[in-house]
Design a protein that fits this description.
Number of strands: 23
Structural class: alpha/beta
Distance between the termini: 33 Å
Strand order of the largest sheet: 7-8-9-10-12-11
Shape: globular
Number of helices: 17
Low-confidence stretches: none
Oligomer: single chain
Strand content: 15-25%
Mean pLDDT: 94
Helix content: 25-40%
């Protein structure tokens, strides 16, 4: 085991002192030395030198919130509607899937964003019926919080004209009161809203392999599945039992499946695999901004609607207290500020009942958190994982249609979080938006929407802060800072080599290419891009 020495380009360690060593040495799966190239050559005379050739070395990126391997499922198992420009194309893509699906079997479309369609609306039940009446068709929205079903799908799920809306969800109806096919909220979608819907072991294995390749190509070596219901947990357990999966994973079991009186609970049954581990327990407090179901304290622009609570206040309080008492960390989806208020109240109550230092309970998304809420987070020890991709992808909608200018400029308020001393991370929530760490860092730094509008100068942060939010702070948020997230002796040799230095081109960070990804001391991704004058 001779080891490898990296040198010849900028090295951003992401350690607490922002150290910029000249060289880094790894042996086996660990970082064994940092410092001058001369010193490392003396201490490791047999090590192979890996010349960075001016490229930049960082710790590998960490996904703080996503749904691995859902991005691959969209491509491999469903009709991918993410690039559709109008409803005609949506129906064409669904029909192509119908043509190769046995009669009576499900056809699922995924990642549909009506804001990209010429019609600016979702399809209806009747329109999906024209694609097929012989197949149940379910089209899930890019947000994952709503979808549209045809008549066969409604019948298959037992949803009829007289079916009442469940708590935290609703069945949309036309002007005559007839079911229109639209379904909002996880409680209403039922199994159709689950990541494992229509999934078997073979399909899961293919999706896993494809998603792994995608993530490693983006420099991500620790991924996350942030809504792991029991059937999906069982599929992951099968992978965990088979040895090294080629990427590290943190799974967030759905809170309700954690046994109430067992501290070990699910963990006692989990296969011993250091690469795939159970993490925080997951709760959902509200819905999505794109569907106007995120729960707000002020109504949506031009309406008297405040959104939709997925869980009532008392139940959320009880669940947070239960999980806190059992010793777990919680990650709770809170898009709207009213949802964040409920969660912060729940954490305060849990801490009053069972004081516990350094719990790191986390708000997921926190899209319109107010500054007073971030002040409260700091006091309670609550951390946040923001979703700044919304600024780029849907920022113009927030500004013009959903929230209005005054609130839109403060979505994903990373600037306030930093000012208030709240340690935070940034995420893509794949497959809602693709896992693209450098593009996400660029958006966090510059806050430009698709139209080029800058949303909130006050919320901008510097490049290093944004990079840390996707490396060491992401490790810290899930109690992994002792083993990864920075280039320090003793940590895992998980590294990414970038074509250029993000610190030197803050306006175009997203255009920087990932050249190599190293995981546990082995190179797992290599992309050769010819330099100027170099033959292709």
């Amino acid at each position: 085991m001779t080891g490898v020495i990296f040198a010849g380009g900028p090295i951003l360690s992401m350690d607490a002192s922002d150290t910029r060593p000249e060289a880094v040495a790894i042996r086996g799966d660990r970082i064994v030395a940092t410092g001058s190239l001369e010193a490392l050559r003396r201490s490791l005379p047999e090590a192979v030198q890996h010349d960075l050739v001016g490229r930049t070395l960082l710790p590998a990126f960490i996904d703080p919130h996503g749904h691995f391997p859902d991005s691959a499922m969209v491509r491999l198992l469903r009709a991918d509607l993410s690039e559709s420009v109008d409803l005609a194309e949506v129906f064409h893509r669904l029909a192509a899937r119908v043509a190769r699906t046995p009669v009576g079997d499900w056809v699922m479309g995924a990642a549909l964003d009506e804001s990209r369609l010429a019609e600016r609306r979702l399809p209806t039940r009747d329109e999906l019926d024209t694609v097929s009446r012989d197949h149940p068709i379910w089209v899930i929205h890019a947000s994952g919080h709503c979808g549209v079903a045809n008549s066969a799908a409604l019948a298959r799920q037992g949803i009829g004209e007289g079916t009442p809306d469940p708590e935290g969800g609703r069945y949309l109806r036309d002007g005559s009161g007839r079911l229109a096919g639209g379904i909002e909220g996880l409680s209403a979608m039922g199994e159709m809203g689950d990541t494992h819907f229509l999934l078997d072991a073979d399909a899961f294995a293919r999706s896993f392999a494809a998603a792994r390749a995608e993530y490693l190509a983006q420099g991500v070596t620790l991924a996350q599945n942030a809504w792991t219901a029991l059937p999906l947990l069982e599929l992951f357990a099968g992978v965990a039992a088979g040895g090294d999966p080629g990427i590290d994973l943190i799974l967030l079991p759905v809170a309700e499946i954690e046994p109430a009186f067992s501290r070990e609970g699910l963990g006692a049954q989990w296969p011993g695999n250091g690469a795939i581990a159970l993490g925080p327990r997951k709760l959902l407090a509200d819905g999505s901004f794109l569907m106007r179901t995120a729960l707000l304290t002020e109504p949506y622009l031009g309406s008297d609607e405040y959104g939709l609570a997925y869980i009532d206040r008392d139940t959320l309080m009880a669940e947070v207290c239960r999980l806190h008492r059992l010793g777990f960390q919680t990650h709770t989806h809170c898009n709207g500020d009213a949802a964040s208020d409920m969660f912060l109240d729940a954490v305060a109550a849990a801490l009053a009942e069972h004081p516990r230092a350094d719990h790191r309970h986390t708000i997921i998304h926190g899209q319109v958190m107010r500054r007073d809420q971030l002040t409260r987070c700091a006091a309670l020890g609550v951390t946040v994982s923001f979703f700044p991709a919304h600024v780029e992808v849907w920022g113009d909608q927030h500004h013009d249609e959903i929230l209005g200018p005054a609130r839109a400029v403060h979505i994903s308020p990373t600037g306030w979080a930093k000012a208030e001393g709240v340690r935070f991370t940034i995420h893509n929530d794949a497959s809602v938006t693709p896992t693209r760490p450098l593009r996400l860092v660029e958006t966090t730094v510059n806050r430009r929407s698709r139209s080029g509008r800058v949303l909130g100068l006050e919320q901008r942060v510097d490049v290093m802060t944004a990079l840390r939010a996707h490396t060491i702070d992401a490790a810290w948020q899930v109690f992994r800072e002792h083993e990864r997230g920075s280039i320090e002796v003793g940590k895992l040799a998980d590294l990414v080599i970038l074509d250029d230095n993000p610190l030197e081109q803050p306006e175009t960070i997203g255009a920087i290419g990932v050249s190599e990804t190293w995981r546990r001391g082995e190179r797992v991704y290599l992309c050769h891009r010819p330099k100027v004058g170099e033959p292709a």
